[in-house]
Amino acid sequence: MALPPGLRALAIGDPQAPHCLELYVDFTCPFSKKQLSGVNEHLLPLISTSGEYNNKVRILLRPYPQPWHSTSPLLTEAAVAVARLAKPRGTSSEYEAEWQKLCNAEENAAWVFAKALFEEQEKYFDGPAKNKNADQIRAELASLVISTLGEAPRVTKGRPLLQAPEKGLPLGQAIKNLLRVEKEGNAGSQVVGDVKWCVKMGRQNGIHVTPTAVWDGLVQPAISSSFGAEEWKKFLDEQVGGS
Fold first, then answer.
1. For residue 24, which of 53, 90, 119, 212 is within the disulfide window of CB 3.0 to 4.6 Å?
2. What superkingdom does the record give (predicted)?
């Protein structure tokens, strides 16, 4: 399934895989957190290099903020900002190497940051966040990007996964630039167009709740956020088989 060029980092797995799993998630939805946790723990080993279904499944993360979760659009902005900065740059050989890295969940900055957002999600529930304004939350999210992906990140054993595109520009400033909203007007941040695209994709496909899983283009109600290793193995056995 398609992603615009600037958001291709929201996908992991072989781009030529015969099957595609799309995960519509809201970063302040507890069940979305549960589903992504299960995918990381139980599904990824099955489709990894050493897994039984290696190169058979590509996974697309579809951020889908629900309007009743007041801070979710801000978390989605941060997620797509990271995806934008994670897209490959440089010479043709460097470009190809960077795309290969994005196929790996452990090397993909957007995927790693999505996990970090879910780990922090309770801070952005309606109650805990009710006295924070949007700029305060954006500043906290920029700090989370730095601590997760930037210089001496805490989750990748000191190995940075993300850099600013402009030489000499700190990563934190690059993120703040993307999330900044001007004092005048109603245009939103620089990534609001990406957030709109994510929402439009869900709306046109009739996605109502999160999490929702889509398998090869069709909503798959059988996929539950409670899926463990046994359930994912059975699902892949039935849906992929010898393909």
1. 212
2. Eukaryota
